[in-house]
Specification:
It is a single chain. The chain is α+β, with helices and mostly antiparallel strands and 112 residues long. The protein has 2 domains: 31 residues; 80 residues, no CATH class. Helix content is 25%, strand content 26%. It is built from 2 helices and 7 strands, in the order αβαββββββ. The strands form 3 sheets. It has a 3-stranded antiparallel β-sheet, with no helix packed on it. The chain is globular.
Amino acid sequence: MANQIPVSQANEMIQQYLNYMTSLGVDMNTQTRAVTFPCGEVLKFMNENMQYTDEYRICLGVYPSGDARAGKMTVIVWPYKNGQPAMKPDDAGKGSGGGKTIAPFNDGGLIP
């Protein structure tokens, strides 16, 4: 695949991120280093919305206060079309350009 990188480069990039965050004073033993998603769930989400999107953005985010994971970093998988959040037509919007923004995918497992 054209977008694949060598394992050694991926490992170096991850290490550079850990070094950078540590240099800022972040304890990376308690902060998110990776987010996991079960293959079946993320593929189902992507396949269900493929016809409405031309890209999937992987956005970085932080869980808000009040959430059990507050302050921890996460990623959000967000379908986009023509540079805007993708829309799924609803019954009322068919033929009139109306629709509903597709809700992003999250709720992955945090490491650590």
